[in-house]
Design brief:
Elements (H helix, E strand, L loop, with lengths): L5 H6 L7 E4 L3 E5 L7 E7 L14 H17 L7 E4 L3 H4 L8 E5 L9
Antiparallel strand pairs: 1-2, 2-3, 3-5, 4-5
The protein binds 2'-deoxyguanosine-5'-monophosphate.
Length: about 120
């Protein structure tokens, strides 16, 4: 069994996080290294390493995660000004934690293209 990821340890309550949303399917908490005034990570409680690990069985889960993101964007006053949802994937994508996570970034004007 591979070591637990840091996000699985947060799900299991082994390490603290600034949780902003919690339900039976997912958890949302503030990124420890924020890249914008609001930087929230939304993760499934199910252990999925990246978007590459999604299957047909996860269709409803992905929809749920996205609706939670939209809800948080509204709750944190990002919806009107805009925001970005980022899913870094694999080495070239800059993924550093092998547990699927959606970055919700907002509160400032974000540049494009990313580096
Ligand atoms: P990524 O590079 O896309 O895999 O993003 C991983 C993010 O996770 C990164 O922005 C920093 C954040 N992160 C890493 N460890 C922790 C932690 O222990 N707590 C919190 N809240 N965030 C973490």
């Amino acid at each position: 069994m591979p070591d637990k990821t840091i996000f699985k340890r947060i799900i299991d309550g082994e390490i603290p996080a600034d949780v902003v949303y919690d339900d039976e399917l997912c958890l949302a908490f503030r990124d420890i290294n924020p890249q914008a005034p609001t930087h929230i990570l939304v993760i499934p409680k199910k252990e999925i390493a990246s978007v590459n690990g999604l299957t047909d069985a996860d269709q409803a889960l992905v929809g749920h995660l996205y609706l939670v993101i939209v809800r948080l964007a509204k709750d944190y006053d990002l919806a009107a000004t805009g925001y970005r949802v980022v899913v870094n994937t694999g080495t070239h994508g800059g993924q550093t934690v092998d547990h699927l996570h959606f970055h919700l970034l907002g509160g400032r004007s974000l540049q494009w293209p990313p580096g």
